[in-house]
């Protein structure tokens, strides 16, 4: 079923410059109430205005819900949301934040948890490490970043609690993470989590497959679509609207539908939030989202029209 998010009018109560490219934002609800509870590894959406709505991992104390905190890296080649936050969201700026969701949960039972992060991909692990420490779990964090200032992101963690479990690799100091070696040393049954740039995620999954770690023990998160941005053109038939629309090579289904002034709810436009989940009546989808699990994708019952495409020349949707 499509995900439903509650939106909370909020104010930016604090902005901290952690690195030249990363700021930490603290939000409070305008009505003075607490935000909903969230679990370790959760994310929420920030709706800055009608143009930008992005997903970010929560880094705040998951026992204190009076505020939400996120860290945002300014992306020069992004879609504009991170630049907007960095350039315009000063203390006192009003926007909306969503209720939380978690697509990157810790496994409840594991002999070992291996956390692999690159750059700003550290953020979901901040709350996860706190939870793992509270449960006296066996865990390691391997954090790779481009320059020493990114190590500032680790300062919110209690060094006395986590220091023996943290391993850092700074490329500007010519210290690099050898993913193949790291994965090869892990006992089978280790749950492996990775968040960071797509090449790091791909390399981690490749190494896990090479050393025969089962798919259900591999977890990854990236708040961007895995689609290449284009594909073959095809027709989408909207059964309820009695319309047939051509989706061009460089268009998403959502964009094609919106060109006919048909409104479809979609909070993220990256295949993460689940709000645009649509029933497939006939045809098959080529799935590029991160919301549906592999069994749901194989079942071909629904698709995320913001990123996924038709496998053939035509697909019929319940819209």
Helix and strand topology:
Blueprint: E1 7-17, E2 22-29, E3 43-47, E4 53-57, E5 68-73, H1 81-88, E6 94-98, E7 113-118, H2 123-134, E8 139-145, H3 159-162, E9 166-170, H4 179-184, E10 191-195, H5 198-210, E11 218-221, E12 234-238, E13 243-247, H6 253-258, E14 277-282, E15 285-286, H7 294-299, E16 302-304, E17 309-310, E18 314-317
Parallel strand pairs: 7-8, 7-10, 8-9, 10-11, 12-18
Antiparallel strand pairs: 1-2, 1-6, 2-5, 3-4, 3-6, 12-13, 14-16, 14-18, 15-17
Structural class: alpha/beta
Overall pLDDT level: 94
| Beta-strand content estimate | 25-35%
What is the level 1 CATH name of the largest domain?
A: Alpha Beta
- Strand runs, count: 18
Through-space gap between termini? 15 Å
Can you describe what's shown?
The chain is an alpha/beta fold and 319 residues long. It contains seven helices and 18 strands. A six-stranded antiparallel beta sheet has the order 4-3-6-1-2-5, with helices on one face. Helix 3 (159-162) links the parallel strand 8 and strand 9 (166-170). The relative contact order is 0.13. The model has no long low-confidence stretch (mean pLDDT 94).
């Amino acid at each position: 079923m499509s995900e439903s998010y509650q939106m909370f009018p909020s104010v930016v109560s604090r902005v901290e410059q952690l690195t030249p490219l990363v700021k930490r934002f603290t939000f409070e609800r305008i009505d003075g109430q607490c935000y909903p509870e969230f679990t370790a590894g959760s994310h929420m959406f920030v709706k800055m205005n009608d143009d930008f709505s992005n997903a970010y991992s929560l880094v705040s104390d998951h026992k204190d819900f009076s505020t939400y905190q996120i860290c945002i890296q300014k992306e020069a080649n992004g879609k504009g949301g991170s630049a907007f936050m960095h350039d315009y969201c000063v203390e006192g700026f009003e926007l909306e934040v969503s209720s939380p969701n978690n697509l990157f949960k810790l496994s409840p039972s594991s002999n070992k948890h291996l956390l692999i992060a690159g750059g700003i991909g550290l953020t979901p692990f901040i709350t996860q490490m706190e939870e793992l420490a509270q449960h006296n779990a066996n865990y390691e964090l391997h954090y790779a970043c481009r320059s020493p200032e990114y190590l500032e992101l680790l300062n919110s963690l209690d060094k006395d609690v986590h220091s023996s479990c943290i391993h850092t690799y700074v490329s500007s100091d010519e210290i690099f993470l050898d993913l193949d070696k790291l994965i090869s040393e892990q006992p089978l049954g280790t749950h492996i989590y990775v968040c960071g740039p797509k090449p790091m995620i791909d390399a981690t999954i490749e190494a896990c497959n090479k050393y025969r770690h089962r798919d259900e023990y591999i977890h990854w998160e990236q708040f961007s679509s895995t689609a290449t941005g284009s594909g073959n053109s095809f027709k989408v038939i909207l059964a309820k609207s009695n319309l047939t629309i051509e989706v061009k090579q460089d268009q998403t289904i959502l964009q094609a539908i919106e060109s006919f002034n048909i409104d479809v709810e979609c909070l993220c436009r990256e295949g993460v939030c689940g709000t645009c989940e649509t029933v497939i009546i006939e045809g098959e989808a080529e799935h590029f989202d991160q919301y549906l699990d592999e069994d749901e994708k194989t079942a071909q019952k629904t698709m995320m029209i913001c990123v996924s495409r038709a496998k053939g020349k035509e697909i019929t949707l319940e819209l």
